[in-house]
Amino acid sequence: MFSPASYPWAEGVSLGEHLEQRGISRREFLDFCGGLCVVLGLSRSAVEGMATALQAMKRPSVVWIQLQECTGCVESVIRTAEPTIGNLVLDLISLDYSHTLMAASGHAAEEALHAAMQENAGEYLLIVTGSVPLNDDGVYLTIAGRTAKTILEEAAVGAKAVIAVGACAHWGSVQAARPNPTGAVGVAEIIKDKPVLNIAGCPPIGDVVTATVAHYLTFGRLPATDGDGRPLFAYGARIHDQCPRRANFDAGQFVEEFDDENARKAWCLYHVGCKGPATFSPCPIFQWNDGTDWPIGAGHPCLGCTERNFWDTMTPFYGRLPDVGGFGVERNADLIGAALAAGATAGVAAHAIATGVHQARRKRELPVVERPVGGGTAPNSPSSGKE
Amino acid sequence: MTGATVEPRTERLPREGQYQWVGIWGLPLRMMHWVAALSIVVLAVTGLYIGKPYFIAGGDTASHFLMGWFRMIHFVAAGLLVVTAIVRIYWLFAGNRYERWRALVPVRPKDFRNMLRRLRSYVMIRPEDEPKYLGHNPMQQFSYTSLYVVAFVQVLTGFALYGQSNPGGIFYGMLNWVGPLFGGMPVVRFVHHIFTWVFAIFIPIHVYLSVRADILEHGSVISSMISGGRIVAVDDEFEDE
Predict the structure, then answer these.
(1) Which residue from A321, A345, A371 is facing B190, i.e. has the nearest CB?
(2) In which domain, by residue range, is A305 found?
(3) Could you say which of A43, A303, A366, B181 has the lowest number of CB atoms within 10 Å?
(4) A88-122 burial, b if ≥16 CB within 10 A, otherwise e?
């Protein structure tokens, strides 16, 4: 296999021809298509169709703009131990404009962006990483003197589809956590007139991006999504329901502290704050860094990074329940609940004693009823017999 | 049994005279009460385990199903609670005047006055000043209706959480709007957890006040939830008679 730098994908050449030039056999290519079909949940019969569609494809134009973000998503997408075909496809399609990956800089880079947008108007795929700050007229992120909102709106006009990659583009991520000083929002808050697909995660798994792009190229449309715009093939099941440590959860075997015996036995991390039961993500299946490992596999609880507002709702990361403010210091919600329940019981007991004292005092004031002579009349009815 | 003379048992009795048995609670309501009580206790105990597993099974993973059983029992008890809710909702319209929905909403000025009187008698420990009710007094109406609301939120959040395990399933399909409404599933889980403590606070107070009323009013308040009626003095006057 030859690197993309030495064999660039020329205009007008189909992907099949290009891969052949770079020494990739049809068998390898079908393997790759088969893998993508598995990822997308398609049947075996779709492999041939996908291979045909991808092979016939001319060099697609993808514009990748990076806004308020840390570059981690790009790192995740390109992070593989060796160049795979999936990596290759992404390298190829992301050539037009990408802050991190392109060689050009300054005015040349901006010209490349505008050229790509004009030449392929209505045709290109727009990938966005990073959030859009809206406070104070968006001054918290400007590139070439223009705000993130302006850049995104301009780029979206001619885009055929928009893919928001990563938690920042999805809903704002850490900069949108309370109190959200820059007013950061996700792409879908700005682009309302076309469908925005969210590849959730901080960062998302590179393979999900690859598979989504392959789906788009094969079928000409974005894959089916859940209510939050996330592709169902990847975000259709909880980590908890795919977790290799699920057996330990069901058995009631939990890690209590990170350095205890149970942690060494690789038991369930629920106790130490794992958010797998609330997180829809394919991490246990796809894994990271070319399938090397993933957080729970390495003994770390899931942080729930594919869920909206996870910085606010999933914290503390190493506890099951959020801390509740008040009482001067932060207290665990359970502690407050238990204290209130104990307080109610104690209050009830005190009230019972007070009532008893009151009744005893009152009774003493009541007139004494004379006992009937002979210890009372013999009861006639069965009910008074119980007395 | 109506009008049977009760013989004096002790030397000190507040009153003697004619007593009568008055039916108040229908069988569906009584059944619903005890099944709901059982399932709420089971739900709270298993729910607190699910929230924070306080037993840990040692040894071979394959030979244990501790959390599995706790969850299973929790879900069965939840289903039972929903059944009681359906019975109660039906009985809000089919029951007698002590059981109908009108008897659960204290909205008249008199209700508020009596609620305050009740509160004052509780705080000042003056049981003899309490406004007397055959059915639920306004404070009971308020607290039981609130508890129904809490139980409704618990059922809603509980089944929304339950639906997460099977996206595309019936519960997920019906309740996937709950997560966004609360601002995310972790918030739903938190609300579900916190509201469990409402029951833990309610139950001791409820049991205490029932026992207390039973003692002060000389029997039949607690057993009315079993037999369906109370034994009251013939000349007693009640606000809701």
Answers:
(1) A321
(2) 237-343
(3) A43
(4) bbbbbbbbbbbbeebeeeeeebbebbeebbeebee
